Amino acid sequence: MEVKIRPLQIDDYSGLKQAMSAAYEGTSAVWQEKSIRKLIDIFPDGQICVEVDGKVAACALSIIVQYRLFGDDHTYEEITGQYSFDTHSNSGNVLYGIEVFVHPDFRGLRLARRLYDARKELCEQRNLKEIKVGGRLPNYHKYSNLTPKEYIEKVRQKEIFDPVLSFQLANDFHPVKVLPHYLKGDSESREFAALLEWSNIYYSPTKSTVNETVIRLGLVQWQMRPFATVDKFMEQVEFFVDALSGYKSDFVLFPEFFNSPLLAAYNHLDTHDSMRALAKKTPTILNKISELAIAYNVNIIVGSMPVVENEKLYNVSFLCHRSGKRDEYRKIHITPNETKYYGITGGDKIAAINTDCGKIGILICYDVEFPELSRLLALDGMKILFVPYLTDTQNAYTRVRHCAMARAIENECFVAIAGCVGNLPGVNNMDIQFGQAAVFTPSDFAFPTNAIKAEATPNTEMTLIVDVDLNLLKELHHFGSVRVIKDRRTDLYEVKRLSKKEEE
């Protein structure tokens, strides 16, 4: 007999499926090939299999998470991002085990121990703080007279044998707490699990971009002023990035169309052509801001800039990650003004964005007035919604502000808005601005009574620096006075995407 422990490959899927089906006694609890493929793509070292005489005999699947974003109160769906594994982060600090199984034909070979040893070695190699798992309690249904705590204690004392928990305890994992409603449909465990951890004694703390659940937001209330060149414009951009990164901000938010002063050079053109001319500068500006994100170690939300693609003009917000990665969001709802003066086309994709501070969403100005978009983002796991806007009058600003406040309450999230202020007489259709940057919160005891975390002085160029605690959102979701996301009547209504390409 030849036993090999090695990284799982996608070519192993057929054998994995057979082994898992046998391990779970023919139930439908088998990972789909696309799920295995994604795990291998995002974290190949974390997917391990044991091969016996050329056959897949056992397997362990895991991800790395920034654990403080979840805490000790979580479900299997939450820790895996609704089974999407979008919660995986290479900059995380905890190895989280999401699956271990052994084909029943090989259960006398102590293969699971080999897999756990491989996980421990991986944890040490990656300098991760610990391994955590939500351990099922498959024999708990036989002891309905015991509380979960009593059951776990009796297993620890070896008065009761549990095939999962007894094994984990024998492998130096220690119970942390009981997790109710951990895995939906797990009737054997009565949906309880034991949160267990193994500590890496060789762990050496390093400076992390996310060392706690408190995220610092830096909002720029941008004064419209003439800029002769892109370089002069970038000097002002870098000034704000430098200042806000100096205060250890995790995000910098610029307003919608904050590069509008550069339109002055095209005043001889009609407004349609001038915006398309400005779009030619977008790649240069974007590259420079992406360099700033890396150099100043801060995630920058590039409010929005015009982009031409396939002869269509879009209003696009960019997220320049401090890692160098880029994401974008195209404004979906176009105002009559934007249609009339610029001929802007609406985007067709809406999705939460993974960052080193958890999932965020971006909506541009008018978009925040449509509650369906932010609800889709919330269902994707968004915790902070960023809304760059450009409003000319107080009426327009009031629409954005009040809708943003509503979105924070409806979706149990923080909402940050930032816009332009001042006058720009040298640019057609950009002459006056009204703005007041702010960060809004849900409305419950843990938050300000007016649901406003902070706000800037209206119509004055300044920055707004605000700390938001993601743990408060988690407490609200589970224990709030009202629980909006949980209490939705999905038996009567639902909000869902209609286009599959939005889900890719």
TrEMBL record:
CDD domains: NAT_SF, nitrilase_Rim1_like. Residues 215-470 form the CN hydrolase domain. GO terms for molecular function: hydrolase activity. Keywords: Hydrolase. InterPro entries: Acyl_CoA_acyltransferase, C-N_Hydrolase, C-N_Hydrolase_sf, GNAT_dom, UPF0012_CS. Pfam families: Acetyltransf_1 (PF00583), CN_hydrolase (PF00795). SUPFAM superfamilies: Acyl-CoA N-acyltransferases (Nat) (SSF55729), Carbon-nitrogen hydrolase (SSF56317). Signal peptide: none annotated. Residues 3-202 form the N-acetyltransferase domain. Belongs to the carbon-nitrogen hydrolase superfamily. NIT1/NIT2 family. This is Bifunctional GNAT family N-acetyltransferase/carbon-nitrogen hydrolase family protein. It comes from Polluticaenibacter yanchengensis.
